[in-house]
What does this fold into?
Amino acid sequence: MKQGLLLIALFIAATALTSGEYSSAFMPSLLPDHDPNTTTQAPNTTTHAPNTTTLAPNTTTHAPNTTTHAPNTTTHAPNTTTHAPNTTTHAPNTTTHAPNTTTAPPPVPTPPTNLTVGKYNVSGAAGICILADLAIGIRVNTSEVNDTFIVQPSKTTVEGQCSEKTATITLNFKEGQFILKFKNNETTKMVYVELVEYALTYAFKFNVSKDYSGKNDTLELFAAPPGHSYSCSAETVYMGNGVSLDLSNYRLQAFNIQKNEFGTTDLCKADKPDYRVPIAVGIILIILIIIVVIAYLISRKRRSNGYQSL
It folds into this structure.
């Protein structure tokens, strides 16, 4: 059995070899005379076409880079046109000054008024440090003006400050201000005004306004002991340059104010009673009486000497 199979296999192999020779002999006559080695290289040469075509995208990518410069050159135009609005904004500024010149009325004197006593005070941390009742007139007597400006209490505001040794009161009004500074002198045991200051801008004549100001800080005015007030019916403080401060019916006190009321009143010299005239009259009367008595005694003695005894 095994030998039969072996023979069959040998037969098949022989048949295959004979068929292979026949086909190889037959194929050259049908195909062109080409070398088998050269036909295998055709695929290799065609594979290069994709490699060469891939370069086209690389070369076209440069076109966007060259066109991007155009926007950069055109951006400068807006910068040159922005200066025009800046040059036109100055016109409104030149026209705003016109209302100021037309709205200001000419300065004129205020209507005549009477001296009025105003009641003023200044308070600090410890309470009221200044009480002041006074009427104020700023009198100007120069070659051009001879008139008085009267401070009106209803149109006056008060400010000031208090400390241990000094106190200041400032009266502010539309035309100016008036300042008094008090000092508590422990050496002399007196309280007095060491500074008087004023400022005034006023037209004593129609359409002619003028500034007046003065300051005197070498004074010892309105002196009174601590706890006392100073009072006077009328007094004048000369400030120089033809200007005087007329104070009328005033009463002042600084420091040691109890229950927000004035202390004991010390009168100014002008208001103190003058006993010199009554004393002089009394002395004259006594002298006359003495002269009359002496004359009477002399005349009586002469009459008695005229008679003789019998």
Remarks:
- The first strand starts at residue 118 and ends at 124.
